[in-house]
Design the sequence.
């Protein structure tokens, strides 16, 4: 009896092992179609993708199910991808931006991929042969229109205005070490004033009484006058004014907030195929789907960022209530990776010292 | 004799495997990866380390002391007297414990409490009062009143009674509550970030910063080890103290007196109303903010960005029930082992079980992701979420049950054994009835921890299952008055579920609690 059971167990084990082995793709052979493909994204993306059924159409078109895995915030997700690069938890990763890109590429996290749809993307957004841009968003200073009207104060003209106490003390920014828009805004000032000038600029901001908080939600829902705080100016996104209209409690004719065009920084989010996946071809198809007009047009209302595909039509609110800054700051990912730690440390010593 | 020993091995095996596979193994793996690349000598790092370590230590110590001061009046009132609203008060006091940090953070900011060490301490007290009230009152309310009467007959005044009888008997429970509050505040993350501004950083904040933002895994690992060593030292001291000080004494079924004189009535009223009012101020901000517009109605409607918010309540409840059962079973088995066998081994076992509470969420989350692909790939599966919750909740079950189990006189168990009861039967008939109420307190905490937990889970790769906290955080990452209103409304729902569940658990009874 016992022997028989042993034989059965051994057989079952052998079957499992051989089944596992047969999944391995042989080089040069067509990989076939998997039943499902796994997409790793940051929490915000994955949660809404699930709620909105954002990949249902892909499953209908290809018969491949998309399993969505949430990996925390963007930095945490990239760390997860790096830590598991030998045995990845997903086939495709989406949501990595310029501030983390070079670290992931250097670690060999991605397979090279060029999408057949990349001709539809503006050239300046394509920065690497490993990842494909999917969306972008501009980090810009937002202001509370009502506050400036009521107090009869002029809206600041440019970044220089904040050196003056009259405006500096009205501005809330996020900490660059803990907040992604905070880091974006710091980079925008470095781009604007250069390596020589940015430290002096921040020293002036400190002198002028700028308010620093840990993250975007505290800044926006805690300090912004629109939500009962004391700052009529806050570092947020170019998409925040249309979001105020779309997500209002009562229908609004015009946006209650607006964007300063000076001092914006463009954040681009990329997707890439994770090295070590068994299904690189299907992974590429998934990225192509994310670039298709069909998916791209869902991006603004789901995630409040802008589609990279120039053929995608924007919702009316995004056309009416905001501006797409004509000349936002952008720095190469390598430059950010090289200097980020030093910039943040120097920024902390200016603001804390 | 050998039969008994096997029983012990079986009971000890469950918590050992749980903590070994889901905590010790992942943490060793991730720290190993970090340390293999470590090169010491970056200038200025030591000074920062020292400053961060020192701040972490003193703010946690001060937070713990202040929490005890703030919790004392209510703990006294609910432990000593039976009055209308007593159960409700102990349930309501648990509500802050479950609220997402970011929600409390915006409420504090709205109240003008911000960016100061005062705000950090106030928030720590706000979150942790429940731990002291509930853990200590479980024991306090069950001190046999005849002890007090005897002392009074012998001429002791009420101060002497408190000092010579109540306090010594409460010491284990107070130490248990203190260790939990200390660990919670020692590893504080969100509160320090949001209310500390940028001047203050705990080790936890620094580990996150080094690992996630700056990709300095080696330094993060070194910091994590500093944190683990600090926590272990505190726990070791605690557990040595606990063992030398614990006494066995008769537990009563808990018949509180009604406040008799006008003065006690007034004092009980002031203690209860005062504590609840203080806690209610930030909660009031929350409720009033949730009333703008119609967020409650919209909870039942599909939202394209977050799905149907109320559906997340179902997921939250499911996770919480699973985490509660897991934590209660593992925690009770662990408590039985800890109290059944004295000595170095049981002390270390106790210590290791407490460690997850004092370990940074980054360490645990990244540990899961590098370690749990063997023997089966559990990474990115749904069940890691309640497991992570249970890991944090087990110490609560252990802490709330060990003082009670220690108070059982060994003679009672021996008598049962002499009369022929098997060890299992002894446990079921003697330990379980006595410990059940404390276990329910622990289970309640496990449930509530899971319901409100966000920190530990946010570093685990997991399938997208919306829970109430994840929805709140998602809503607070998009602008718009309706997002904000709904986030506040979801927080109120979270608070209401918490109060209801805790109230129900307080009423529940497992078996009869007899007098001995």
Sequence:
């Amino acid at each position: 009896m016992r022997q028989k059971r042993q034989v059965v167990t051994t057989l079952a084990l052998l079957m499992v092992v051989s089944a596992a082995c047969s999944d391995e793709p042989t080089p040069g052979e067509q990989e076939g179609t998997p039943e499902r493909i796994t997409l790793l994204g940051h929490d915000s993306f994955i949660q809404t993708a699930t709620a909105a059924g954002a990949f249902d159409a892909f499953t209908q078109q290809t018969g491949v199910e998309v399993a969505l895995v949430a990996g925390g915030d963007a930095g945490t997700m990239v760390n997860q991808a790096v830590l598991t690069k030998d045995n990845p938890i997903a086939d495709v990763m989406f949501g990595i931006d310029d501030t983390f890109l070079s670290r992931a590429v250097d670690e060999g996290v991605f397979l090279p991929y060029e999408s057949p749809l990349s001709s539809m993307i503006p050239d300046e957004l394509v920065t690497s042969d490993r990842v494909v841009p999917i969306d972008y968003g501009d980090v810009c200073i937002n202001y509370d229109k009502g506050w400036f009207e009521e107090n009869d104060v002029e809206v600041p003209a440019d970044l220089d205005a904040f050196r003056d106490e009259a405006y500096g003390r009205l501005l809330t920014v996020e900490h660059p070490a803990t907040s992604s828009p905070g880091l974006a805004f710091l980079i925008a000032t470095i781009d604007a004033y250069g390596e020589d000038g940015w430290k002096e600029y921040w020293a002036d901001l400190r002198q002028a009484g700028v308010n620093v908080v840990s993250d975007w939600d505290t800044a926006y829902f805690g300090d912004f006058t629109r939500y009962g705080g004391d700052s009529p100016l806050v570092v947020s996104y170019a998409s925040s004014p249309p979001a105020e209209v779309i997500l209002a409690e009562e229908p609004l004719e015009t946006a209650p907030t607006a964007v300063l065009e000076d001092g914006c920084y463009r954040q681009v989010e990329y997707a890439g195929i994770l090295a070590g996946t068994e299904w690189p071809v299907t992974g590429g198809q998934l990225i192509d789907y994310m670039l298709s007009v069909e998916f791209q047009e869902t991006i603004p209302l789901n995630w409040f960022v802008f589609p990279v595909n120039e053929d995608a039509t924007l919702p009316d609110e995004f056309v009416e209530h905001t501006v797409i800054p004509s000349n936002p700051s952008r720095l190469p990912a390598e430059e950010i990776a090289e200097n980020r730690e030093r910039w943040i440390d120097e920024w902390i010593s200016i603001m804390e010292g | 004799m050998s039969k008994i020993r096997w029983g012990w091995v079986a009971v000890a095996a469950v918590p050992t495997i749980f903590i070994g596979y889901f905590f010790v193994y992942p943490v060793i793996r991730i720290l190993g990866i970090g340390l293999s690349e470590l090169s010491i000598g970056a200038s200025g790092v030591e000074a920062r380390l020292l400053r961060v370590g020192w701040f972490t230590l003193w703010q946690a110590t001060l937070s713990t002391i202040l929490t005890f001061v703030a919790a004392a009046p209510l703990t006294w009132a609910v432990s000593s007297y039976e009055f209308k609203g007593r159960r409700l008060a102990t349930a309501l006091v648990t509500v802050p414990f479950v609220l997402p940090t970011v929600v409390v953070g915006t409420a504090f900011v709205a109240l003008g409490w911000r960016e100061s060490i005062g705000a950090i301490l106030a928030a720590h007290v706000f979150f942790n009062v429940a731990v002291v009230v509930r853990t200590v009152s479980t024991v306090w309310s069950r001190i046999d009143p005849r002890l007090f009467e005897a002392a009074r007959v012998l001429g002791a005044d009420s101060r002497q009674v408190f000092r010579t009888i109540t306090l010594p008997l409460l010491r284990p429970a107070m130490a248990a509550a203190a260790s939990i509050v200390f660990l919670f505040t020692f590893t504080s993350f969100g509160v320090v970030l949001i209310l500390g501004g940028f001047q203050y950083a705990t080790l936890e904040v620094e580990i996150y910063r080094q690992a996630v933002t700056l990709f300095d895994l080696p330094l993060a690992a070194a910091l994590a080890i500093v944190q683990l060593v600090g926590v272990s030292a505190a726990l070791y001291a605690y557990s040595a103290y606990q063992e030398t000080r614990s006494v066995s004494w008769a537990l009563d079924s808990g018949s509180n007196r009604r406040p008799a004189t006008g003065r006690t009535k007034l004092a009980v009223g002031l203690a209860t109303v005062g504590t609840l009012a203080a806690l209610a101020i930030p909660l009031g901000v929350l409720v009033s903010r949730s009333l703008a517009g119609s967020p409650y109605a919209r909870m039942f409607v599909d939202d394209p960005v977050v799905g149907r918010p109320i559906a997340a309540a179902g997921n939250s409840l499911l996770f919480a029930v699973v985490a509660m059962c897991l934590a209660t079973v593992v925690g009770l088995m662990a408590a039985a082992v800890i109290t059944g066998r004295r000595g170095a081994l049981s002390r270390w076992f106790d210590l290791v079980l407490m460690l997850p509470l004092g370990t940074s969420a980054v360490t645990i989350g990244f540990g899961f992701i590098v370690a749990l692909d063997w023997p089966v790939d559990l990474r990115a599966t749904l069940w890691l979420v309640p497991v992570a919750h249970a890991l944090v909740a087990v110490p609560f079950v252990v802490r709330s049950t060990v003082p009670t189990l220690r108070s059982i006189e060994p003679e009672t168990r021996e008598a049962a054994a002499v009369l022929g009861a098997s060890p299992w039967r002894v446990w079921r008939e003697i330990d379980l009835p006595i410990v059940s109420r404390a276990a329910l307190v622990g289970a309640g905490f496990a449930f509530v921890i899971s319901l409100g937990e966000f920190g530990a889970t946010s570093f685990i790769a997991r399938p997208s299952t919306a829970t109430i906290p994840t929805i709140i955080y998602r809503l607070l990452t998009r602008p718009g008055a309706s997002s904000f209103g709904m986030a506040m409304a979801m927080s109120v729902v979270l608070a209401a579920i918490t109060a209801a569940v805790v109230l129900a658990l307080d009423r529940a009874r497992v078996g009869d609690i007899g007098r001995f």
